[in-house]
Write a structure and sequence with these properties.
The chain is α/β, with parallel strands linked by helices. The chain contains eleven helices and 15 strands. Strand 10 (173-177), helix 5 and strand 11 form a beta-alpha-beta unit.
C-alpha cells in the first residue's frame, strides 16, 4: 500500500494531466482537538471524486458541495473550481459549526485550498517521491506558483503568510530478517500501514513457503542486504530469525545507519546474550548498542504470532510518530512487574516479542 500523500498527489496529477479542474486542500492549522494533523492533504476533482482526507468526512462533503462541477440546468457547462490564488477557509469556529462538520468539541480546522495546481510541478514532485527523495513543496500564496526542491530532513509545515511549505517524503520502509510466520503477519500489517516491506532470508526452506503479496523477498546474506539497502531515517530493520549468524551481523550493520528503529525478537535473556556476544566478539559497547531494541513490541500479553505482530507494529508506529512509550508498556518492565524471571529462562528459544520462554 502506497504512502497516502503520494497516492493523493498521483491522483491529483492524473486529473490535471487529463485536463480536469481540481483542488488541493492542506490542513495548515488546528485549534483544540482535530481529526487530522497539520500537513494532511486531500484532492478534489471537478467530478466530485476525492482522494485523501482532512477530517472525518463532513468537511470533505462540504468541499464537494462547494466546488464540484455544477450538473443542474442553471449551471450546465460551468465549473465550480475557480482559477486564482490559494484561499484560506476555517471550519468549526462556532460550536454549532463544529458540530455540523463533525469536529470534536472545541475543534477548529484551517485549510489552504490551491486551485488547479500546475501539472508540471506536480509531475516533478511525484517523480522525485517515487525515486525515494525527501522533497519540500513551496506555494506562493499571492500567485499560487509552486516550486519543489529536495530537503535534508522532514520539516513541519510552515505558513508565514506569504509562502506555504510542506515536506513530503517517500514511503517508510521495513526490512525484516527472516521469512517465517511472524514475518508474514508483520509484513502484512506494515503494508497496510503504508510501509514498503522487504524480507530477507537466505534459507531456501523458509523462502519456499513465503506468500505475502506486495512484500519483496531478498535472498542475500542479511548483513550484505542491509549494506546494499540504503537504510535511511525512514527505514526500520527488524531481526526475526533467532539465528545469531543471520540476526547479529544484520543488526550491527543497521546500527551504523540512520534507521529510526532497529530491533530483534527474543526473550529478555536472549537479548542480553546477544548484547554480550556483540560486546565480546564485535568490539561493541553498551553505548554503541543503545539504539538496539529488544525484546521488541509493547506488552499486550501476546503469545500467538498474529498478536506478537500487532505488538511489534504498535511499537514501530509509536517510534515513527515520535511517541514516547511509558515504561509499563515496554515488554521487559511489564513482565518484571508481573512475575520474576524463571531460572531456566535463558535456556529456551523465545518465539514471542512479549513472552518469556
Amino acid at each position: 500500500m502506497e504512502n497516502l500523500d503520494i497516492t493523493v498527489l498521483r491522483h491529483l496529477l492524473q486529473w490535471r494531466q487529463q485536463g480536469q479542474r481540481a483542488l488541493l486542500a492542506t490542513v495548515i492549522r488546528t485549534w483544540g482537538s482535530s481529526p487530522r494533523p497539520v500537513g494532511s492533504i486531500m484532492a478534489l476533482c471537478e467530478t466530485g471524486a476525492v482522494i485523501g482526507s482532512v477530517s472525518g468526512g463532513c468537511i470533505e462533503d462540504d468541499l464537494i458541495y462547494r466546488y464540484r462541477r455544477a450538473d443542474g440546468a442553471a449551471g450546465a457547462g460551468t465549473h465550480d473550481i475557480p482559477d486564482g490564488p490559494p484561499e484560506r477557509v476555517k471550519y468549526g469556529v462556532s460550536a454549532d459549526e463544529a458540530h455540523r462538520f463533525g469536529l470534536p468539541c472545541g475543534g477548529t480546522l484551517e485549510l489552504m485550498l490551491e486551485f488547479n495546481p500546475d501539472a508540471g510541478a506536480l509531475a516533478a514532485l511525484v517523480t522525485a517521491l517515487g525515486d525515494g527523495r525527501l522533497m519540500q513543496r513551496s506555494t506562493d500564496l499571492a500567485t499560487g506558483r509552486v516550486t519543489v526542491a529536495p530537503c535534508e530532513r522532514p520539516e513541519a509545515l510552515s505558513d508565514d503568510g506569504q509562502v506555504l511549505r510542506n515536506t513530503f517524503g517517500p514511503e517508510y520502509r521495513m526490512l525484516l530478517i527472516g521469512a517465517g510466520q511472524l514475518a508474514e503477519y508483520l509484513s502484512t500489517m506494515a503494508i497496510f500501514c503504508g510501509f514498503s516491506v522487504s524480507v530477507c532470508d537466505p534459507r531456501e526452506e523458509y523462502r519456499g513457503s513465503w506468500n505475502v503479496p506486495g512484500a519483496k523477498l531478498l535472498t542475500g546474506m542479511p548483513d550484505d542486504v542491509v549494506q546494499a539497502f540504503g537504510v535511511d531515517r525512514r527505514t526500520c530493520v527488524i531481526a526475526l530469525t533467532h539465528d545469531p549468524k543471520l540476526d547479529d551481523l544484520a543488526l550491527l550493520e543497521a546500527l551504523g545507519t540512520e534507521a529510526f528503529y532497529v530491533g530483534a525478537i527474543g526473550s529478555r535473556r536472549n537479548n542480553e546474550a546477544r548484547r554480550a556476544r556483540m560486546i565480546e566478539h564485535f568490539d561493541q559497547t553498551e553505548e554503541s548498542l543503545a539504539a538496539m531494541r529488544g525484546p521488541i513490541g509493547i506488552y499486550i500479553g501476546s503469545k500467538m504470532p498474529s498478536e506478537i505482530a500487532v505488538s511489534i507494529m504498535a511499537e514501530v508506529l509509536a517510534v515513527k510518530n515520535g511517541v514516547a512509550l511509558p515504561r509499563d508498556a515496554q515488554v521487559g518492565p511489564a513482565k518484571d512487574q508481573l512475575q520474576p524471571r524463571s531460572a531456566d529462562e535463558g535456556g529456551a528459544v523465545c518465539f514471542s516479542a512479549s513472552r518469556v520462554a
